[in-house]
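Support case: flavin mononucleotide complex. Customer-provided input:
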Amino acid sequence: MSLRYLTAGETHGPQLTAIIEGLPSNLELDFEEINFQLQRRQKGHGRGRRMQIETDTATIVGGVRHGRTTGAPVALFVENKDWKHWTTVMNIEPVEGSDETKRRVHRPRPGHADLNGGLKYNLKDLRNVLERSSARETAARVAVGAIARQLLARFGIKVAGHVVSICGVEAAAPNLPIDELIRVTEESPVRVADKAAEQKMIELIDKTKEDGDSIGGIVECIVEGLPVGLGSHVQWDRKLEGRIAQAVVSINAFKGVEFGLGFEAGRRPGSQVHDPILYNEQQGFHRASNNAGGFEGGMTTGEPLVVRGVMKPIPTLYKPLPSVDIDTKEPFTAQVERSDACAVPAASVVLEHAVAWEVAKAFLEKFGGDSIEEIQANLDNYLKQVAAY
Ligand SMILES: Cc1cc2nc3c(=O)[nH]c(=O)nc-3n(C[C@H](O)[C@H](O)[C@H](O)COP(=O)(O)O)c2cc1C
Ligand SMILES: C=C(O[C@@H]1CC(C(=O)O)=C[C@@H](OP(=O)(O)O)[C@H]1O)C(=O)O
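Agent response - structure generated as follows:
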């Protein structure tokens, strides 16, 4: 059975819930580390007041005993502290009273899921759409991804993420060893080592907020320590690059993905794109460069994965765009809900965990076993085979 998960829960409901199926037994979990990753997702300049209300922590309620997985489904939840302010609005029983009491949403925000969701599910209160389409759900995804990340770490695979640019303000390429990049990005609110760029980004976010506008940006995730051959060329839906692309673009507001050189590869000849193959006793087969971003033929090359995602500007604008009232069909400006002006640093943390999940899934497909020990034996055996090739 391959690794899978589902999440449930609304942004202003009591909690977000996740169930993970297919984890091996005997994986020791560091609960503090899961919560640390959740707290990283809450940080960064430009977020709205909601992040001051929440202190995200994951409570594990199934599949773990004495700090280790048992092989049973892992169930967890992340509480929404804000729920206590929304109990009337979110009451699942019919609420007596006016639309005002229900905080009904009827003027859809361009860029959000409001209008499509309302039309598709025949919902006249667009809150029923926004409650689930909110990126609050990414807290559950980070909790799930943090467990996948610990599985990978158990086998020496490390994941880092950082902000490449915010609305055109570029950070210098970090060019740091992965442990150092992880350390720096754990400290910096915009997750770059480039303090000058960070200051410019902060000023731009403040100005954007003042103007009632919003901005997006580009984030990057790097994974190191992978064996060659995760994923497969033999069937379209087994190509790991494609699976990661789906995971990345599924993150709220992510509109594109690149690997390695990415779109730049379309502007260069092959001689300046493909990574020459080298061999020596110590490293085995390896590459002179990593323009491919760690993939060829939908399989890992053994070089670091380099995955970039682009986040569009946040849809909710305090100076709202034109919209149409779904009741009257009259032109109106879009509804304003409390909102972030920029969530790019948080999005870099979500990216890390979305990528970690897909990599862990492919890792278990390749080396799958019911316990950590069985997986270790399978991995060791494969690495021996590759070394002797
Ligand atoms: C970390 C994070 C925080 C976000 N915060 C907001 C927000 O405060 N307000 C908002 O309108 N959209 C926010 N978004 C984006 C919306 O959730 C997203 O645009 C919406 O679900 C529509 O989906 P789509 O943009 O993927 O098409 C956020 C996204 C992320 C990743
Ligand atoms: C709650 C989170 O992000 C939310 C994502 C979001 C949206 O529309 O996507 C809208 C805002 O919700 P609220 O109106 O409750 O402040 C953000 O705060 C979170 O990241 O944990």
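The radius of gyration is 22 Å.

Case will auto-close in a few days if no follow-up is received.
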